[in-house]
Amino acid sequence: MAYEGVPGLVATKDAHGETTLVVDPARLLEACLHLRDEEGFNFLSDISPADYLGWGEKGVAGYIGTAGGRDLNAPGSQGFATRPEPKPKRFSVSYHLLAVADRPRRVRVQVWLDDGEPVPSVVSVWPTADWHEREAWDMMGIPVEGHPNLRRILMEDDWEGHPLRKDYPIGGEPVRFSGEE
Amino acid sequence: MAVVERRAPIYAGSRIPQPVPTVLKPDPAEVPLDDLMTINFGPNHPSTHGVLRLVVDLNGEKVVGINAIIGYLHTGFEKNMEAKTWWKAITYPERIDYLSFQANELVFVLAIEKLLEIEVPRKATWMRMCLAELNRIHSHLVWLGTGGLELGAISMFWYAFRERDLVLDLFEMVTGVRMHTRYFQAGGLAEDIPRGFYDGARAFCERMPKAVDEYEAILSRNTIWLERTQGIGLLSTEDAIALGQSGPMLRASGVNWDLRRNEPYLFYDQVDFDVPVYGGGDVYDRYRVHMDEMRESVRIVEQCLERLEGMTGEPWIADDRKVVLPPREELHTSMESLIHHFKIVTEGYRVPEGEVYVTIESPRGESGCYLVSDGGPKPWRVKFRAPSFAALEATATCMRDAAVADMIAIAASLDPVMGDVDR
Fold this sequence. Notes:
The structure holds two protein chains of two kinds. By secondary structure, chain A is of the alpha/beta class. In chain A, the strands form two sheets. Chain A has a five-stranded mixed β-sheet with strand order 1-2-5-4-3. Chain A has a two-stranded parallel sheet with strand order 6-7. Chain A has helices at 28-37, 129-140, and strands at 9-15, 18-23, 43-51, 91-98, 106-113, 119-120, 144-145. Chain A is built from two helices and seven strands. Chain B is an alpha+beta fold. Helix content of chain B is 45%, strand content 12%. In chain B, strands 1-4-3-2 form a four-stranded antiparallel β-sheet. In chain B, helix 6 packs antiparallel against helix 7 (197-219). The longest helix of chain B has 29 residues, at 122-150. The chains are: A alpha/beta, B alpha+beta.
């Protein structure tokens, strides 16, 4: 196994030709420094947070079906026999790394977080993380600890809520000057 | 040739501001803060290529502090895509980066196909490459036209848009629309390649290199252009990598890196093309990279056309009835086809559970798509890595100590498309 030495490594997954390293969030900074300095991942391509609230349940986007398979008495249910694999916590944050070198490699570093659980900032490792982490805070409400300038980036400064969370409805923004004020 | 070659550094050390890499604060030791004037550019300034806002601290003509503020074009594409079925969501990525629509469409479709593990017919892959390269020419032409316009080269705009119109004519011939074509489907192409496209594209390929010669005749030895672009907006090799720069930005800073060659996707490993690299790290070298890339794209399009011309009659989309709509004529005779058609149109196809991250070399650099599927007919999560978003992170580094007028040239050279930045 190639990434055994990564500090705080919890699990390694290989799927679709991509390697995912699940890392303990408390040791994320150490792991990132190791990957940059020892493994040559000098380029942070993207930080992608995802919200798994309601994963595999009815009523959320992509609802699949009952746990036992097709339910003939409920015409809305679908014929899939299994629910998707449960996730350890509500949020995942994936760091997509790339080694800009003669032999390019990619790896995904992933941490799992509950609502409100902070993740350490990696701006000191890759300066490009600055805006990506601000976006993760703005859109998903991931508190980034140690970020030098953690403010909203796409929404207004006084915006309430984090639009890409699953409990934030589409069209949920308040309408100003609607005549009812 | 090594990816990062040892050569004379563009400047010594790092110029990335501390502690915030994207915000340059005036240094009280160098300039008395009372002498500064804070000016707000944008968000509706005509020279910022869309709704970019720059808050600039000026010491006379010199930029000593800068903060780029974005978000004015945020439209919630990623959120909306979660509520659409996979095949309806294909229309969204095109509108994110409205100049390289086919590149964005391509990266999303490639990501779906990676989850589906579906095999795409070779004709579709060659055609995707052909259109992606035409799209690169289109995007670079808009960059050249508007970039020239910022520095007063108004005629450049008309010449660039003259050829851009020819590219759009080709898109219209193939897909029926000039922009936001929605021509790529999971599994292949939406329609067969129309008659007349090869001739039209060949005529364009013949004309385009001469047109690039014309542009260079206007600009490359123009004293004003050289004075305004050479040595302006410097970005060193190390800073470019640290700031996540990609595409022409990276190649103008001396990094010999192109995903089409270094991590080949589609059939880029089967075509012959060169990757232009310059080591100046300034606006002028970004201009040279863009010009050379247009020539190389023409070469790739020609090679695609050669292959495609021998594939008449071959399928343009995979024959997988769970994902791909059945041929129209079968609907009148086959119950099975009718059911498949109905299911795909109403409910959409299902994509197996999993997460993938796919990257391609878009005209602006590394364009990525992170997808999470729960096995249902709608995406659970879609996230795009926008190359323009990363490019704008370099504003504070590139514009340090620049004159106000040069700031405009530098902003143009970063090639930001605000739709791509804000999504």
